[in-house]
Amino acid sequence: MARAEEVNGSGSLDDAPASPREVEIDAADQDTRALNDRLRELLLSGVEKVVIRNVCGQRYIGTRLYTPQHLKMDIEIFGTPGNDLAAFLFGHKITVHGNAQDGVGNTMDAGEVVVHGRSGDVLGFSMRGGEIYVRDGCGYRTALHMKEYEDKRPVLVIGGTAQDFLGEYMAGGIVVLLDLEERGHQANFIGTGMHGGVIYLRGAVDGSQLGSQVGCSPVDPSDRKVLDHYITRFLERLPEVGLSREEIINSPFLRLTPKSKRPYSTLYTY
Amino acid sequence: MKSFVFPEFQIIRDEEKCGQCRGCERQCAFGTHTYDPVADRLISDETKCAGCQRCVIFCPKHAIVVRPAPSFYRPNASWSREKLDDLKKQAETGGVILTGSGNDKPFRIYWDHILLNASQVTNPSIDPLREPMELRTFLGAKPDIMDISAGDGKVEIKTEIGPNLMVETPILFSAMSYGAISYNAFGSLARAACKSGTYFNTGEGGLPKEMRQEFGRCAIVQVASGRFGIDAEYLNCAAAVEIKVGQGAKPGIGGHLPGEKVSQLVAETRMIPQGTDAISPAPHHDIYSIEDLSMLITALKEATNYEKPISVKIAAVHNFAAIASGIVRAGADIIAIDGLRGGTGAAPKAIRDNVGIPIELAISSLDRRLRGEGIRNRCSIIAAGGIRCSADVVKAIALGADAVYIGSAALIAMGCTLCQKCYTGKCNWGICTTDPRLSGRLNMDIASQRLANLISAWSHEIAEMLGGMGINALESLRGNRDHLRGVGLYEWELDVLGIKGAGE
After folding, report:
1. Domain residue ranges of chain A, discontinuous segments joined by +
2. Exposed e or buried b for every residue in A159-170, given b needs 16+ CB within 10 A?
3. If I label A155, which of A110, B115, B221, B322 is the partner at 20 to 30 A Cα–Cα?
4. ipTM score here?
């Protein structure tokens, strides 16, 4: 397997860079399974980029694209994809021109999702790798139990803000809430049970909105570096927000981190 | 604070026999035995003893006896010694009482009140030593109607049948995660499953990468609320995927694998940082309804290209049969149902001993409910929690299960003595620990052989019992309650079990 990848890899380097094979499909009359059948078929036939028009509620887009050869594909979606977009995503890149629904990036492993719009509830649930950029806000239960391991560190950048239960049980990764419209963060129960990872909030949050396991502090220069990096990437992908990097980064940010890696270590008796 | 709790066990050492070899000292990870060089004798601290019998069995001179401590409080039917001691521990620490293994309280064990039938004169019994006996079972959804075409001596199935697991004998190893149990115990289950034509269940702790190629084909990989170690590769290397909603030992609550047990290898397999608590929330926070469950089932089918059956494991609780009906309608191919006596590596004792219902009653009501709704064929039932012997397996199947999961029984085959100290991580038998020194005590060749022997022995016994009933295929026993009779049961119990009283 490794050998085959190597050969393919060196092959594409030696040859003149061919433009990626690109296909456009119309999802208007396709149900979830048929659309995902088609995507899998295209991936296996070597297609590297697919543009899907008229997407309307089809679920699990990107989920059935695991192959033992680790083939990768770019998917551009026009319309509104259904729940569990990019669930278990294995390194593919998905761009949504429209809003996304619930469960985007559920248990996502690697890859990238960009939403030119808003995202629903349970965004980035149990996500362990890859990056998600959402231009507007998102719903309840965002970044629940997000986790990280070594070089796998998931990143979630939200142009707006999130609703209640943000970062509950969070065990790793980076969440950035930019609140670009400056509506203020209204979420309650932020980070209950949090035991890893970091949440950056632009603007202010009241202590009463935070779970008891969460510590809150202003950002330091090393945090600013991280923020700078991901805000730059956010703006590269979502230039339509019309703000400059400086306008965003030069505002007060707060950092939420767990007080302990082991929130329940004193709960039990033997 | 001075502890007012009695030692649970008394250690009697025969000084005549003891050769001061210090083997007991080395065997005990709890530090019970120490050598006093001045007196040249071994001293035992009974407060540390877990009663696991490791030192007793490994003493070359058979010089040690460990038995329940004879000390007692004034006898009191309401305040048992256990109640007093637990209360004292809590007064001393303020903590939740943890325990391991399954419910040990004297709830009625229905297996022991159910008797099997045998053939006499008419419908003669079958000798399994001479006649073929079919124990092979297929687990997964079966179609409502089977469309076949026959011609030219060939039969062709035209109906598209979803993925099914083929198991040579109706006994699978229950979910026990790497991290809760040792690498060697986990690997032994994997090897034994492959050798015996059955499956092991990874639990929620992931499947070590180096095991995937060899043992993936015999693995049921679990997706639990913690979502540890899950990626598309993990899901696709396995034979089936199981969504763990509940566990018989602790229905309704999640799990905390303490940071001490998250060693480097466990961290790598679960894909979480070393030393952090591995917290599984009580519910899956993406599942708050049958519709949400349906979405996760379908997401897993999508992630595995519709090639693998999806199981959903729930604990047997009140009204679970209605929920199970929803689970079948949500698209599950298998329902695993775990009863009151199911084991665990760690659970609050209050939960383990007080929540859930016995598996025998659960199997019967689930099977009847699904039959009543006409959807029994759409999923298989795996029963778990308290299966102790081959007769329990036969009774479970006659009550309506397709197969059983064994957890505690498998651990006992490897050496476990049900001392219930799994949560300490100091298992002297090398089973429920991540300490490499302790887990090295479990030889994978031997342990997997012991497990394979158990499966083989039980399978022979099942064939004997089937043959005795005049049945030559397990399929004919499934839900066949006519072969069961109850003794010493109330009318309502017979009704729930759907069986007649003995002599009727």
Report:
1. 1-50+63-72, 83-258
2. bbbbbbbbbbbb
3. B221
4. 0.90
